[in-house]
Structures are given as structure tokens and as C-alpha cells.
């Protein structure tokens, strides 16, 4: 992830949450009061979000010291410490929820990705994400997929062409759609074509896109059709892929499996933030 872009996005999130000020902390704590905040995992999985912690707690420009107990991609168990942050109590409490929301989501995505890769077994197929991300979170979501051991599909509509059923229907044919797309962008932008039937596969092969996606096809169909595809065209399976079926899809021999559930319906990785309490000496 680009640190400058992360900071800019976090500023947007901060403004949405804080507005003109954090009434809770400003009404109770003086600016000069400092403390310590410990982030603790309450689930077991893959940690992700170190840069978010660092940039998130520095949004207010105050002096912050952070001790990390885990790096991105490392396993963490319930009850273990993720990081310890020291600084003004106002900053710690104001930025706490913003940071936790993102780090919990990113760690959940990394954990889910790693889990599915384990289910795929010892195959050469790569697991990728999709564009099914929440608006504003794509950069964080896709980074988390990579931390979990997965690979990124296209980032948006601007860096690759994917010709889906509606594109093909409006164009009239796969051949027409691929030819128009290739003439428009030139040879440096990859073109992917989605197919659902053997007839569509045959036409796609003749059109010679960079990638052919088997959409909502069964493992049996893919296994039968895959030998037709020349090595010069990469293959991808998508749709109908679950924890129960992903091993069968990976064993078909496709190059990639894309799973929208990595980002669109992931269950949060639970964490808590615990503040060091004041002692009697500090209170008096």
C-alpha cells in the first residue's frame, strides 16, 4: 500500500467520525494527559494492518510511540497483544475505533484468504479477490488478501478489461467484443472474457483474449473443457465456489480461482483496545 494514499483515506474516515471534535474525550481529559493503549486479539488468525495502526494514531499530529508485537502476515492467537500505543489519552481514545474497524476487517480478510488457500491443498492454482469490496476500502481489502497469501485481480475498471455476459450481449458476440476492446486499448492492457457454455468457450478461444473465465461452471465441466484452451491463454474459475468446493475447483488445473466472499461478506476478526488505568498516585 502507498503510505500517502493510506494517510489521505484515513483523513477522510477521521473527518467522518470526529467532525468538529470528540466531545467525550474533550469534556473529560486535559490535552497534556498521556496514557497507554493495548490492542489485543480476541480471535485466532492472520494479523494485518500494521501501517493503519501507525498512520491512524498519528492523524492528530501528536507524539505517539508504538510497539508492535506482530508483523503483517504473522499468526496471532486470542489473548495475544497486537500492539502497544503510548501518547495523549485524547488521541488514543479518539482514533481507537477508526483503527480497530479497519484492522479487524483487514485481519479477517487475511485470515479468510489463508484458510481458503489451505483448503486448496498442494495445487498450482492461485486464489484471487474481486471488485466486490466496500466503497473506500478496496485498497485495504486487496492488501489484506495479499497478506493472507492470495493474489489481486484487477483493481478497478481502469487497469484491465473484463467482458462479462452483458458486455457480450450488447456487442452481439464474444468475437466482436474482444476485437473492439483490443482496438481501443492496444496490446498492453489484458482482456478477460467470461464464458458459461462450451460454445462460448470455443468462440473465446478463437478470439484469443488474455484470460478466459469459467463463470458458474462445475469442476466437471472445467476439467472436460480445459484441455481445449491453449497455454497462451490463462484460465480462471469464478462463481459457485465455497469452502466445500474450492478444493475440487483447484484440482481442475485452472490458473486462478476468484472468490468475492474474501471481501464482500467476511466476518470481522475481533480485537479489543485496553487503556492503562491511572494509579492512585497518579490520581492524587
How is this structure best described in words?
This protein is an alpha/beta fold and 284 residues long. It is 42% helix and 19% strand. It has twelve helices and twelve strands. The chain has helices at 3-18, 23-26, 50-56, 89-120, 138-147, 165-171, 174-185, 198-207, 219-225, 246-250, 261-264, 280-283; strands at 34-41, 45-46, 65-68, 75-76, 81-88, 126-128, 161-163, 191-195, 211-215, 234-238, 256-258, 271-275. A six-stranded parallel beta sheet has the order 6-11-10-9-8-7. The chain has a four-stranded antiparallel beta sheet with strand order 3-5-1-12, with helices on one face. The chain has a two-stranded antiparallel sheet with strand order 2-4. Helix 1 packs across helix 3 (50-56) and helix 3 packs antiparallel against helix 4. It is elongated. It starts with a helix and ends with a helix. The mean pLDDT is 94. Pathway: Cofactor biosynthesis; NAD(+) biosynthesis; nicotinate D-ribonucleotide from quinolinate: step 1/1. Pfam families: QRPTase_C, QRPTase_N. Involved in the catabolism of quinolinic acid (QA). GO terms for molecular function: nicotinate-nucleotide diphosphorylase (carboxylating) activity. It catalyses: nicotinate beta-D-ribonucleotide + CO2 + diphosphate = quinolinate + 5-phospho-alpha-D-ribose 1-diphosphate + 2 H(+).
Features:
six-stranded parallel beta sheet, 42% helix, alpha/beta, 12 strands, 12 helices, four-stranded antiparallel beta sheet, 284 residues
In short:
By secondary structure, the protein is an alpha/beta fold. Helices cover about 40% and strands about 20% of the residues.
Amino acid at each position: 500500500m502507498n503510505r500517502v494514499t493510506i494517510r489521505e483515506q484515513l483523513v477522510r474516515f477521521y473527518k467522518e467520525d470526529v467532525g468538529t471534535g470528540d466531545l467525550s474525550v474533550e469534556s473529560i481529559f486535559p490535552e497534556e494527559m498521556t496514557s497507554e493503549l493495548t490492542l489485543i486479539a480476541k480471535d485466532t488468525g492472520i494479523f494485518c494492518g500494521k501501517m493503519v495502526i501507525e498512520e491512524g494514531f498519528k492523524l492528530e499530529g501528536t507524539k505517539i510511540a508504538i510497539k508492535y508485537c506482530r508483523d503483517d502476515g504473522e499468526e496471532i492467537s486470542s489473548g495475544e497483544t497486537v500492539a502497544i500505543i503510548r501518547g495523549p489519552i485524547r488521541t488514543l481514545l479518539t482514533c481507537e475505533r477508526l483503527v480497530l474497524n479497519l484492522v479487524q476487517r483487514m485481519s479477517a480478510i487475511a485470515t479468510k484468504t489463508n484458510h481458503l488457500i489451505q483448503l486448496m491443498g498442494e495445487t498450482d492454482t492461485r486464489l484471487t479477490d474481486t471488485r466486490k469490496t466496500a466503497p473506500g476500502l478496496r485498497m485495504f481489502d486487496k492488501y489484506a488478501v495479499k497478506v493472507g497469501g492470495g493474489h489481486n485481480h484487477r483493481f478497478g475498471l481502469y487497469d484491465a478489461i473484463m467482458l462479462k455476459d452483458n458486455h457480450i450481449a450488447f456487442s452481439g458476440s464474444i468475437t466482436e467484443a474482444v476485437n473492439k476492446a483490443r482496438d481501443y486499448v492496444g496490446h498492453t492492457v489484458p482482456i478477460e472474457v467470461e464464458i458459461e457454455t462450451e460454445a462460448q468457450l470455443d468462440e473465446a478461444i478463437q478470439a484469443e483474449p488474455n484470460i478466459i473465465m469459467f463463470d458458474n461452471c462445475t469442476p466437471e465441466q472445467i476439467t472436460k473443457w480445459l484441455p481445449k484452451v491453449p497455454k497462451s491463454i490463462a484460465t480462471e474459475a469464478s462463481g459457485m465456489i465455497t469452502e466445500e468446493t474450492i478444493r475440487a475447483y483447484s484440482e481442475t488445473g485452472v490458473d486462478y480461482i476468484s472468490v468475492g466472499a474474501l471481501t464482500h461478506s467476511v466476518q470481522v476478526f475481533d480485537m479489543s483496545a485496553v487503556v492503562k488505568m491511572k494509579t492512585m498516585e497518579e490520581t492524587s
